[in-house]
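2 proteins. here.
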Amino acid sequence: MSSNPDFDRWYAAKSARFVLEPSHRLETFGNTLVNYHLVSELDDYPGKIRVREGRLEAHQPLVITPRFQDVEFEGFGDEAREYFEFLKRSEEHLRILQYGYHLKSDNFSEQIVTDKLSVVVERVKQAVIASNDKFAAVIQCVDEPWDVALVELWLREIRRSAKGNIDELQARGKLF
C-alpha cells in the first residue's frame, strides 16, 4: 500500500479483474446471495496467494417514488424552477430502484496457499464452475485493500441487473 489511501482505493478498484461473474442477475422479487471468491497475491511474499470467500446478500430492490410536492424550492433561477415544475408534473412516471447489500461475515473464510497466482485463479474458477453456483463470482484483486473489489462487484451486479429487474417489475405492474 502507498502513503495515499485515495490512490490505493482507486488502484484496487481499477485493477480488480473479474475472472468469473455470476451467470444470473440479482433477483427482482427476493433476496440474492452472491458468493464471492477473491484471489490475491500477498504483497511482500511472491508465490503466497490468499483466497478469500464469503457472500454478499443483495436485498430485493425497492421501488422509490419521489414526492416533489414535499420539496421546498427557493433561491433558484427561472430555468431551474421550470425544470423542477416539469419534474413535479411528471413525478408519477419517475421511479428509482434502491438495492440494499449486506456483507455477511458469518460465512467469510480465507486461506493462504503457495503456488503461482494464475494457477490458483484457474483452480478457484474451475471449482466454482463445477459447483454450478449461478450467483458466484471469482475476482483477482490486490491483497489490500481487498474489500474495494467487493464494492466493485456490488456496482457491477446492480448495473447488470437493473434493466431486467425494471422489466420484471413493469411486467407485473409493480413499477407504474
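next one coming up
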Amino acid sequence: MELIASAFQKAKLRGAIIGGVARNYWETPRLTFDIDFTVEANPAGLEMVIAALADHGFEVLRAQGREQASGPDFVQLYNRDIAQVVELQAAKTPFQEEVLRRAVALDDIGLLVATREDIIVLKILALRPKDRDDLRELASHASIDWDYVHYWCDVWQVTDRLENLRRTLAEDATTL
C-alpha cells in the first residue's frame, strides 16, 4: 500500500480504494485477492503510476482503452514475486468522479477509501455472489445515506436491485 501511495503522490494522481479492500475497511475483513482503485482520468499521471509499479516488479496484464486520448479505462497489473494484483479504473463518469470527491483518508500514508454508500452502489452494479454478501453487511448500518444510493442507482438504472436489497434487509431484521 505504501508503494502505491507513493506512486500516486509522485504522479499527483488522486485515487480511492474500492472493491474488497474498501469493503474490509468498513466491515469485518474477508479474503480478497486484489486491490482496486478508481483514479483520476489523467493519462500522464496514470502512466507514471504504471511505470512506478513496473519499477517494483508489476507488469500490465490487461489495459482497456489505452489508445484513447483520455487514457485507459482500466489497467490490471500483477507482481509475480508477491502474487499481488492491482487494478486501476479511470474515473470517466460523473459517478466515478463523485467516488473520488467523497473518498475519505484511509491512513497517514495518503491513500483514500470510497465511502460505504459508494461501495454499495458499485457492488449493486456488479452484483456477483460475493457482492450480495458484502451488500448485506455494508447496508446494515443506520447511517447510510439512502437518498444518495438511490440517486446513483436510478442514474445507472438499477433501482430494482436496490429495492431487492432493501427488501432483503427488512426481511433479515424481522427474522432476528
